[in-house]
Design a protein that fits this description.
Layout: H1 2-27, E1 38-40, E2 44-47, E3 52-60, E4 64-68, E5 73-78, E6 81-86, E7 95-103, E8 112-119, E9 125-126, E10 129-133, E11 141-143, H2 199-204, H3 213-222, E12 224-230, E13 233-239, E14 245-249, E15 265-272, E16 279-285, E17 290-296, E18 306-307, E19 326-327, E20 336-338, H4 394-399, H5 408-417, E21 419-425, E22 428-434, E23 440-444, E24 454-461, E25 466-473, E26 479-486, E27 497-498, E28 509-511, E29 519-521, H6 577-582, E30 586-587, H7 591-600, E31 602-608, E32 611-617, E33 623-627, E34 631-633, E35 636-638, E36 644-651, E37 658-664, E38 669-675, E39 685-686
Parallel strand pairs: 2-8
Antiparallel strand pairs: 1-3, 3-6, 4-7, 5-6, 7-8, 9-10, 10-11, 11-18, 12-13, 13-14, 15-16, 16-17, 19-20, 20-27, 21-22, 22-23, 24-25, 25-26, 28-29, 29-39, 30-39, 31-32, 32-33, 34-35, 36-37, 37-38
């Protein structure tokens, strides 16, 4: 029995030994051992600023350890691999670190390895603050977080508009730029971006600014908005056209203490409210809607800074530094545009803002302080449909008779004939306009709302009693050019033009053999050959205009009942357009001279060089051609090619607001009378001097 027991014990010990040997083989890689070799799949790594992880394979017959002294590196190991993780680099400096790998229980330096780690600097930092390029049309870069915050989801600080320090209580009584009431708010600028009142610029420095209203509008129009949670904070996730995002936390704000935190968010813009001195524009968002509006400047709101990148500077066509220059863009009208604005000393400066028809600038633009009304839009005064070259033309008044405000047609010609490129000049955003001649001008952005780049024309829009301006940027902030009708009290910049002096070629005086000896011109005022229509003039006026009715007629107060008497016969006076344009002996024809033409001449309806009209044949066989000019009424040109209507110089006694004219069509011609406010053609005449008779005075020493 003892022998059997010994056998059993022996078998048991052999089994235990075999199991131990097997287990040892299985766990041997994990047990500390002295190992004879150590190699790594990579001994250097590089990370971008946003960080990341990389895996290195370890080949060894021993057990290894891994470590680093860098706080921005995390290292872990598992069997035969090492994972190295670099945290985000939030600085503008690149950095390097070392990861140590060595065999356990081995002091030989040849069996220790290092991994060199390099991480790039953060490139989207300006002045130490992170930005995000959302791919917006303007190139605007938005900050990753609010002023006073250190992460996107943090609320940051709250500021009243124009103030640069936080405070405990926000209302009009504590607002720095008022005297204790909304009515006494101080004017500190139409746009405070980049000024001493801009908290983003003051706190962050460099190129950081508060966003303008146009930049907020661009964010609303070009991005998608989604309510979400970032690290437990309710916010709007704003995704740009290129897929990049920013988080706008629902930081709340408002008067007294900040409220509505977690429910909505408010962000100041840098733009003043044009209609209320106590307000400025801001961005407001909820979980379900987002928009811009106006709120009290004294409220405490968040600020999210922006940067507008510089665009390449372009040279322009000024021959020297002595501004202004007349730049010939090669326009068909011959109009030359100034290189700079009224009150600017170079092309970069905006100059001052003016209400339409005013010649002095001011800080605020309202109906209540508009010179040419009685406090309301409904009481606007009539100062003319085209004020270029008049006492209401600020370019003419400030720069002299060689300059004037551009007309609607001159602005349209610029927009249609030139190319436009958004650029910058000496750091100022603007538009480079290249004409057909290859010469160019620079027009700076003007910060008007909602059009960033608004320049007055001299032309009134009579349909709504507004005036036209030329807009270079649309309400979306994108470069787009068009004409816009705008309230006359608004302040816009003015870019003068030098229009070519109109030449009025004097026609030949045709002797038709009439009894009176009257000679008729061979073409109309404003024409250069017989078949041209020439200009159209209201009776007594000497300049053309865009719109013809009583509201634009110079010699009344807006209606035919208020017509002023300027003479029974205006021939040879300041009201005679023929005399004023052609001078010398030329006059508008009287009603008697028109009747003489009708009574002593024959006529034939015909066509001259494609133009319908009447060929008038005098008693001596000489002829003149009168084109069928039609009539100008409101902004329309009516009855041309079928009817000819020509002013006389004679007042019609039948109606105080009507004057005589020649009227003809293909079948008839006669003396007619028509409303003075309408635009008609003028065919001048020369009346021969009558022989002076002798009288009974013996000499010239009167009286006798």
């Amino acid at each position: 029995m003892n022998r059997n027991l010994n056998i059993l014990i022996t078998v048991f010990l052999v089994a235990i030994t075999a199991c131990a040997d097997s287990a040892l083989e299985e766990w041997k890689p994990y047990l500390p051992s002295e190992g004879k070799f150590l190699t790594l799949s990579s001994e250097s790594l590089s990370f971008v600023a946003d960080g990341g992880s990389e895996v290195i394979t370890v080949t060894t017959d021993g057990t290894f350890t891994v470590s680093t002294n860098e706080s921005w590196l995390l290292v872990t190991s598992e069997r035969n691999t090492i994972t190295i993780t670099a945290l985000t680099n939030t600085t503008t400096n690149s950095r390097t670190g070392i990861v140590f790998v060595s065999l356990s229980n081995n002091t030989s330096s040849s069996l220790s390895k290092t991994v060199s780690v390099q991480q790039n600097a953060r490139s989207n930092l300006i002045n130490g603050h992170e930005y995000v390029d959302l791919g917006l049309p303007s190139g605007t870069l938005w900050a990753s977080w609010n002023v006073g915050a250190t992460a996107p989801e943090e609320y940051g600080d709250y500021y009243a508009w124009g103030e640069t320090e936080e405070k405990d209580f926000y209302d009009i009584g504590t607002y720095e730029y008022s005297d204790g009431s909304y009515e006494t708010c101080h004017f500190i600028g139409k746009d405070i971006a980049g000024t001493e009142y801009d908290v983003a610029h003051v706190k962050w420095g460099g190129s950081w600014r508060m966003p303008t209203r146009a930049q907020i509008n661009e964010l609303l129009d070009n991005c998608t908005w989604d309510w979400t949670t970032q690290n437990g904070v309710e916010c709007q996730l704003v995704t740009g056209p290129n897929g990049n995002v920013i988080f706008l936390p629902a930081a709340g704000g408002g008067d007294h203490d900040p409220k509505y935190q977690g429910e909505n968010g408010y962000l100041w813009s840098s733009t003043f409210c044009p209609n209320d001195d106590a307000d400025a524009s801001y961005l407001c968002f909820y979980s379900y809607m987002w928009y811009w509006g106006y709120t009290r400047r004294s409220n405490g709101l968040s600020v999210r800074p922006v940067i507008t990148p510089e665009k390449p500077q372009t040279s322009f066509s000024c021959p020297d530094g002595h501004h202004p220059h007349m730049i010939d863009l090669g326009l068909s009208s011959g109009t030359k545009w100034s290189c700079c604005n009224v009150d600017a000393t170079n092309p970069v400066e905006k100059g001052n803002y003016y209400a339409w028809g005013e010649t002095e600038t001011k800080d605020r633009f309202r109906w209540s302080n508009y010179t040419h009304c009685d406090g309301t839009e409904e009481t606007c005064h009539d100062i003319g449909g085209d004020i270029s070259g008049t006492e209401y033309d600020v370019a003419y008044v400030k720069w002299g008779p060689d300059w004037q405000m551009p007309s609607y047609d001159q602005c349209k010609e610029l927009l249609h004939s030139c190319s436009f490129e958004e650029t910058s000049y000496n750091g100022v955003k603007g538009c480079r306009i290249v004409g057909p001649s290859g010469l160019s001008i620079f027009m700076p952005a003007t910060d008007n709302w909602p059009f960033d780049g608004a320049y007055w024309s001299a032309t009134l829009d009579y349909f709504i009693d507004h005036s036209y301006f030329m807009a270079l940027w649309g309400s979306s902030g994108e470069l787009e050019q068009h004409m816009v009708s705008y309230p006359r009290y608004e302040g816009c910049c003015v870019r003068p033009v030098a229009a070519p002096k109109k030449q009025y070629p004097v026609a030949e005086a045709i002797d038709l053999g009439l009894p009176s000896g009257t000679k008729w011109a061979s073409w109309n005022v404003g024409a250069s050959k017989p078949e041209e229509y020439g200009g159209y003039y209201a009776w007594g006026e000497t300049e053309e205009k865009e719109y013809y009715d009583w509201s634009t007629y110079k010699y009344c107060n807006g209606s035919h009942e208020t017509c002023q008497h300027i003479g029974d016969d205006i021939a040879g006076t300041q009201y005679d357009v023929a005399h004023m344009k052609w001078g010398d002996l030329w006059r508008m024809p009287s009603s008697d001279q028109i009747l003489e033409l009708i009574d002593y001449c024959t006529r034939k309806w015909t066509n001259l060089n494609g133009v319908n009209g009447t060929l008038v044949i005098g008693p001596n066989g000489a002829t003149i051609f009168l084109p069928a000019t039609g009539n100008r009424m409101y902004g329309l040109h009516i009855d041309k090619e079928s009817t000819g209507i020509y002013w006389s110089s004679s007042s019609a006694p039948e109606e105080s607001y009507c004057e005589y004219c020649l009227l003809f069509d293909s079948g008839h011609w006669n003396l007619y009378y028509s409303s003075r406010d309408l635009g008609k053609a003028v065919r001048p005449v020369i009346s021969p001097e009558k022989p002076q008779g002798a009288f009974g005075c013996p000499d010239s020493n009167h009286p006798q």
